[in-house]
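In response to the reviewer comment on reproducibility (Comment 2.3), we provide here a single inverse folding case reported in full, input and output, so that an independent group could reproduce the run without further information from us. The structure tokens appear first.
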């Protein structure tokens, strides 16, 4: 079995201290095999914010795979934004912008969708997706194959009409699903959603789209508190549990929803509770 915690949009520099403390305690208690952070570790890509984020992640005492978000690229410092946009991220978080985690049961591929020219939205190019496609094609059926980006390749249906996916996301998504991509993790909208994507014209398989809200930021949606997702995978079965921290008075993240899936001939199939 593999257990994966999916957190996103930490936004150090604009965090809720109670949520941050509760998140650290929850993750240390759950002891996941891997913590995945789908971008926006900072609010304004400042050195002190990256240091705070790095200290928080180090305190989890578990492997971390992270990708940058648009907030991890300097906004107001034009020279830094266009000449060395990932300097702070690489110095404090990770040198690799598109990390890979691989073991007997998992293949996790990070994709960097943050761009200097895109102040809010994100982009992926053919070369990035091509490298991921090659890794997915050789991963084998038994391993759970996860693709992580900050900007969703497919925007959550429940996020509203203003929610846009990554540039050329539909085409990129089809290539990755055709190659074997099964679960797509993202953040950006501060909105939690778990959706099965129906098979597309170029793919017979149904993938799972898992979106995380903000784990620690004060910029929460009115309809939900700070939260994260916990994925458990074993033998073709996958469960996705959403944990939420609903009040500054609370010291815990608690599970609020849980969904279970089985890998079938045409991708994921939901299991009745």
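Designed residues, in position order:
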């Amino acid at each position: 079995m593999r257990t994966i915690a999916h957190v996103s949009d930490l936004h150090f520099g604009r965090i809720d201290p109670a949520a941050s403390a509760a998140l650290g305690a929850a993750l240390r208690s759950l002891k996941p095999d891997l913590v995945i952070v789908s971008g926006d570790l900072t609010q304004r890509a400042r050195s002190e914010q990256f240091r705070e984020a790095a200290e928080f992640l180090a305190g989890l005492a578990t492997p971390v795979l992270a990708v940058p978000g648009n907030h991890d690229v300097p906004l107001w410092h034009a020279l830094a934004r266009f000449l060395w946009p990932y300097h702070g991220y690489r110095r404090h978080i990770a040198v690799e912008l598109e990390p890979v985690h691989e073991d007997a049961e998992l293949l996790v591929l990070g994709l960097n969708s943050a761009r200097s020219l895109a102040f809010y939205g994100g982009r992926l190019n053919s070369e990035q997706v091509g490298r991921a496609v090659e890794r997915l094609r050789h991963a084998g059926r038994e391993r759970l194959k996860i693709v992580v980006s900050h900007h969703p390749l497919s925007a959550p249906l429940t996020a509203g009409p203003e929610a846009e996916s990554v540039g050329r996301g539909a085409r990129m998504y089809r290539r990755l699903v055709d190659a074997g991509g099964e679960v797509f993790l993202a953040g950006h909208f501060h909105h939690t959603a778990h959706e099965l994507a129906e098979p597309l014209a170029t793919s017979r398989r149904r993938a799972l789209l898992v979106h995380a809200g903000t784990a620690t930021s004060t910029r929460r949606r009115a309809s939900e508190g700070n939260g994260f997702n916990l994925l458990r995978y074993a033998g073709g079965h996958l469960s996705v549990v959403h944990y939420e921290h609903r009040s500054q008075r609370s010291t815990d993240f608690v599970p609020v929803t849980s969904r279970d899936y089985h890998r079938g001939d045409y991708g994921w199939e939901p299991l009745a509770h």
